[in-house]
Amino acid sequence: MTQKSLKCLITGGAGFIGSHLAEELVNRGHRVTIIDNLYNGKQTYHDDLFQKIPFLKISVLDHEMIDLLVANHDVIFHLGAILGVKSTMDRSVELMETNIDGTRNVLRAALKYDKKVVFASTSEVYGKATPPFAEDGDRLYGATNKLRWCYAVSKTLEETLCLGYGLKGLKVSVVRYFNIYGPRAKEGPYAGVIPRFISAALKGDPIQVYGDGTQTRCFTYISDAVEATIRAIDDECNNEIINIGSQSEMNILNLAKLVRKLSHSNSPILYVPFEDVYPLGFEEIPNRYPDVSKMSSLLSFKPKVSFIEGLSETIEWFKENI
Ligand SMILES: NC(=O)c1ccc[n+]([C@@H]2O[C@H](COP(=O)([O-])OP(=O)(O)OC[C@H]3O[C@@H](n4cnc5c(N)ncnc54)[C@H](O)[C@@H]3O)[C@@H](O)[C@H]2O)c1
């Protein structure tokens, strides 16, 4: 399926992962349409790309437009979503409605027109379960009034919708991303930790480590995430949920030190209590570590970019773009 030229629709295509995915699909000779309501997209990052491929400012909540667009494409990469722990706490209703209703619009239309969907889910769905996280492992969330869990709950529900539509005959694959980073990752106080640290290091600001810095994550470079996402088009992946991640685990304090070193920065490292950053109801996930055996067997894929290499590339990009 990946061999012939496909008509690909990317929702959330002006975002970090979606824009890289769009570029790679175009490089491989596929035809791509991007839709995004620019809730969190940066059109200025992609001016070149948007001259080459159609970009439509449309919300995934516009079910009539979604229906029309899905009908005219072969594969839909559904990445358009509201994400991030801070968003989940500040805008939980908007997040739940956008994510769940948007996904339902995409899935309904794709079933109607017999199109393939690759749905972007997240390692957040594992919640407080004990790593390593395997796709068929249990999930564990905190109390409902801890709004921090609403992003995980929305993606869990969306995954369940995907599998339900799969039972009705939809060709759908779910990719669960583990902390993707690279050029164009969003910076800002509540953004992913890597862009936040790089931005502070390059500006000479304190690098703020939330909590004691012993929490660990496995970071995955964007080109690896994109490659795995494209492989998930394959029919063998229908009705499958697949972790997309690396297994190089790093604690956040060591990450801060590494970013500072690679950026040649003198920024101090500052510990900030979680209570000072997040409102009541926040819970941290201490360790996040994927089981990647399914990614390796089903997608025949292993991440290729080393952490040092990926981090250095990302720092170079931020030097030009902050
Ligand atoms: N970056 C990661 O590490 C990571 C990890 C796990 C899962 N994901 C998932 O991958 C997908 C892409 O994430 P990203 O990191 O590129 O984030 P991003 O915020 O850069 O991209 C999401 C895009 O969706 C768009 N969007 C929001 N609401 C929309 C709507 N109503 N209609 C159309 N577009 C809308 C935003 O404007 C944004 O451009 C998301 O579904 C996210 O949940 C990302």
Give a structural overview.
The protein is of the alpha/beta class and 322 residues long. The chain has a domain at 7-178 and 222-245 and 290-304: Rossmann fold, CATH 3.40.50.720. It is built from twelve helices and 13 strands. The protein has a seven-stranded parallel β-sheet with strand order 3-2-1-4-5-6-11, sandwiched between helices. Strand 2 (31-36), helix 2 (47-52) and strand 3 form a beta-alpha-beta unit. It starts with 6 loop residues before the first strand and ends with a helix. The mean pLDDT is 93. The structure holds nicotinamide-adenine-dinucleotide. Nicotinamide-adenine-dinucleotide binds next to helix 1, helix 5 and strand 5.
Provide the fold topology.
Elements: E1 7-11, H1 16-27, E2 31-36, H2 47-52, E3 55-57, H3 63-71, E4 75-78, H4 85-90, H5 92-113, E5 116-122, H6 150-167, E6 171-177, E7 180-181, H7 193-203, E8 207-210, E9 216-218, E10 220-221, H8 222-231, E11 240-244, E12 249-251, H9 252-262, E13 269-272, H10 274-277, H11 293-298, H12 307-321
Parallel strand pairs: 1-2, 1-4, 2-3, 4-5, 5-6, 6-11, 7-10, 8-13
Antiparallel strand pairs: 9-12
The structure holds nicotinamide-adenine-dinucleotide.
Residues 11-12, 14-18, 36-41, 59-61, 79-83, 98, 102, 120, 122, 177, 179-180, 186, 192 line the site of nicotinamide-adenine-dinucleotide (NAD).
